[in-house]
Write a structure and sequence with these properties.
four-stranded antiparallel sheet; 119 residues
């Protein structure tokens, strides 16, 4: 981009559609767990949401995936259902999903979605 030329896209920090998908729990040593954040100018599609979930699932070890098998399935179902129903409202956020057979008590998958209107 030439010097002095204005960028047409708003900065990601100003993008109205934001959120993140996370895998968290005591069995994940990475501070804050595995996270896939986004900030964009258009709503997230079901394809995007499923892709974000796949990215964090890929970061999990075999045992971490086992602790969250049902949680990932529930989160994927949530994304698909939200898409079929036309999206989710910010007040329905955040959502946490857990596996009933987990042995790590706080092992979970979280989905947070927000929309910030510009003034």
């Amino acid at each position: 981009m030439a010097e002095g030329q204005k960028q047409n896209k708003p900065l990601l920090s100003q993008a109205p559609y934001r959120g993140r998908v996370q895998a968290q729990g005591d069995d994940i040593e990475k501070d804050g767990g595995y996270s896939c954040p986004w900030a964009q100018n258009v709503p997230v599609t079901d394809r995007d949401g499923l892709s974000f979930l796949a990215k964090i699932e890929e970061q999990c070890t075999k045992s971490q995936k086992a602790q969250r098998k049902q949680a990932f399935a529930k989160a994927k179902r949530f994304v698909k259902l939200a898409s079929e129903q036309g999206g989710v409202r910010p007040e329905a956020q955040p959502r946490s999903f857990q596996d009933s057979k987990r042995t790590v008590s706080n092992a979970r998958v979280d989905i947070e979605i927000s929309f910030e209107k510009s003034s």
